[in-house]
Design a protein that fits this description.
Layout: H1 7-11, E1 15-19, H2 25-34, E2 41-45, E3 66-74, H3 78-81, H4 84-99, E4 125-127, E5 131-134, E6 137-149, E7 153-162, H5 187-205, H6 211-220, E8 228-233, E9 236-245, E10 251-255, E11 260-263, E12 267-270, H7 271-277
Parallel strand pairs: 1-2
Antiparallel strand pairs: 2-3, 3-7, 4-5, 5-6, 6-7, 8-9, 8-12, 9-10, 10-11
GO molecular function: ATP binding; biotin--[biotin carboxyl-carrier protein] ligase activity
Enzyme class: ligase
Keywords: ATP-binding, Biotin, Ligase, Nucleotide-binding
Length: about 280
């Protein structure tokens, strides 16, 4: 089976470029934008050799994993376009619900979620700002990049990387893969569901007009609400309790002095041990 778009995505004019191996799906998408591509273009691959994550970190994928980048163009405000990361997280979670119902997932932070039947309930959680967790470990990451186009237009690339068969073991945080979790799902099947779920969530988002509903849905799947958290921001570590994300999707914590702190960007660590490791 090769990569293909869902019927809804195809009907809405989305296009697909599929590769067996690629340097970086985000980089190719940005190249397409600079060459004048009109957007609504998915770039996908089962192996990425020189991908990148947040803050310039390397993000390579072994063969069989999923690397997918969506190019969108328009008269977006950058602040509004940045919230597409939350649309991506919801879309990926919805896709996993659709194609991996038999996987041995648990709740992301506390391990709850057993149905009482001896089988774990499929549930993944969204970790602010751009990760997806399963059983407390990182299963997927999201990276947004942008470039300015002529006539005040903006190109946004939504990059999504999923550990389908292999996960890294040389990272400072727990990681996992769909295969390890017992899911019988390949990259092609997951992408098909992702391209379908994107249609629904982007329709709700509606160029930012539906952000309140996206925020509500994201919080319903959020990891660590009410938990102890440490956030690294520009070299400093802020500690407190994760309360919510605000109307602009900023991370809101109640600090140790009882004040509320809103954070626009940072690395989040949950739990007492993770907080200590944030140092």
């Amino acid at each position: 089976m090769g990569f293909s778009l869902s019927p809804l995505a195809d009907q809405d004019g989305f296009r697909l470029e599929a590769f067996d191996t690629i340097g970086s799906t985000n980089a190719v998408a940005l190249e397409r934008a600079q060459a004048g591509d009109p957007g609504k273009l998915w770039i996908v691959s089962k192996q990425q050799e020189s991908g990148r994550g947040r803050r310039g970190r390397a993000w390579t994928t072994s063969h069989g994993n999923l690397a997918a980048s969506l190019l969108l163009t328009g008269n977006f405000e950058l602040k509004t376009a940045a919230t597409l990361g939350f649309v991506a997280g919801l879309s990926l979670a919805d896709a996993l619900d659709a194609v991996c119902p038999a996987a041995a997932f648990k709740v992301g932070i506390d391990g709850a979620g057993n149905s009482g039947s001896g089988k774990s309930v499929l549930r993944v959680e969204l970790k602010w700002p751009n990760d997806l967790l399963a059983d407390g470990a990182k299963l997927a990451g999201i990276l947004l990049e942008s470039t300015q186009l002529p006539n005040n237009r903006l190109a946004i690339v939504v990059g999504i990387g999923v550990n389908v068969v292999v996960y890294p073991d040389d990272v400072p945080y727990p990681a996992t893969s769909l295969m390890k979790l017992g899911a019988n799902c390949d990259a092609e099947t997951l992408f098909l569901a992702l391209s379908d779920a994107w249609q629904e969530n982007s329709r709700i988002w509606s160029e930012g007009r539906g952000l309140a509903e996206i925020r509500k849905r994201w919080l319903a799947r959020a990891a660590g609400v009410g938990s102890e958290v440490a956030v690294r921001v520009d070299g400093a570590v802020l500690r407190g309790i994760f309360e919510t994300i605000d109307e602009d999707c900023r991370f809101v914590i109640r600090d140790n002095e009882g004040g509320r702190v809103k954070i626009a960007a940072g690395d989040v660590h949950f739990g007492a041990v993770a907080s200590a490791n944030a140092e």
